Amino acid sequence: MPTVLVIDDNPSVFIALEVLFSLHDIRTLSAETPEAGLAMLEQGGIDLVISDMNFHADTTSGEEGVVLFRQIRERNPDMPVILLTAWTHLEAAVELVKAGAADYLAKPWDDHKLLAAVNNLLELVHTRRELLEHRTGERHRRDALAHGHDLRGLVYADPASEALLTLALQVARSDLPVLITGPNGSGKEKYSEIMHFNSPVREGPFVAVNCGALPHDLIEAELFGAEPGAFTGAGNKPRAGKFEAAHGGTLFLDEIGTLPLSGQVKLLRVLETGRFQRLGSNSERQVKVRVVSATNADLPGMIAEGRFREDLYYRLNGIELRLPALAQRPRDILPLARHFLPDGRRFSEAAERALLAHAWPGNVRELRNVVQRSALLSIDRIEAVALALPVLAHAPASSTPNEPDRSMIEAALQRAGGVLAQAAAELGLSRQALYRRMDRLGIARD
Fold first, then answer.
1. pTM for the full predicted model
2. Which of 180, 281, 436, 444 has the highest CB neighbour count under 10 A?
């Protein structure tokens, strides 16, 4: 049950408010002096304060109310305060509202207006409390993940990233091959490193190969090695391939979709048996390697077109990790941007708004490049103009900051993991206002 503290030297004020609030399941406490009110606030458990402006019969200036309000704000910065004032104190009350008071009402008050103000503020308090508890839980989970694992410096804050990281750490404990899918620049290699350094083979080597950068006629030699004279330019010494280099550890095959069919056949064999031959050799070698592959390509579509082997796809895809684009995990944007900033630099508020508004088609890689470039053009504070980003270029023309549309609400609900209070706070709405919009748009409240 929410609790309201009434600070007023007139007992009849408390009685009237207690009767009014009791009819709406609101608990009411009273204090007849500022000192008693401050002492009760120290004990906690109070959600809202209703305060008079004068506490002695011979004072009418409202100065006591001003002093009390400042003391409350100093000790409880987030405590909402409604001022009850005579018309002679109206100017002082308005000034206190500018200084952070929640509202003011003239005596005698209108019960409907007072009750509406109290309910709105209590709802806001409840929403903030839920959001704080949710964020505190998120922070504790992130601290636990960082304490118990090697995250390789991963910077994240979005629930989507937390869920993906948790899955990656679970997958790391198995020896199944992993396929990481997602757009370019979203962090696929970072997650492959996290899986390696939290796996049973963490003490072994981590070898990364960009299959898209290998010449097709040298792929076999790069992956499996070559004997002297195996091909023109092979040299006169045996050459170990990436599989041998990764023995006892993890081999990360990036852009696996670019591997030609000839290379796919040999890769499939070594994945199935752990055995291979160096180019130009008839003797087989045995390796034990955990394979993690990654792609931004549509491998099922390539299979249908005959450009990727179906049996290799299922051999690589023991477990799939799907990395969302940066735009789908917006709470990662500012922490990552600040991480990429040189020491002593900071973003202006306008620059941060521009960062959040951009669609980031190049994902984390694009964000890093934008931040590093803007840092070169700025001395201390980085302004939006230095980022050279089109603001809200991807937003629907019909949307406005004050009236979120269906897609914005659904995206906020997804980011909040279905926690309505968090989604409402992100959208700048009360929970009831969010409910109304969801009902109007036909969005389920699951």
1. 0.68
2. 180
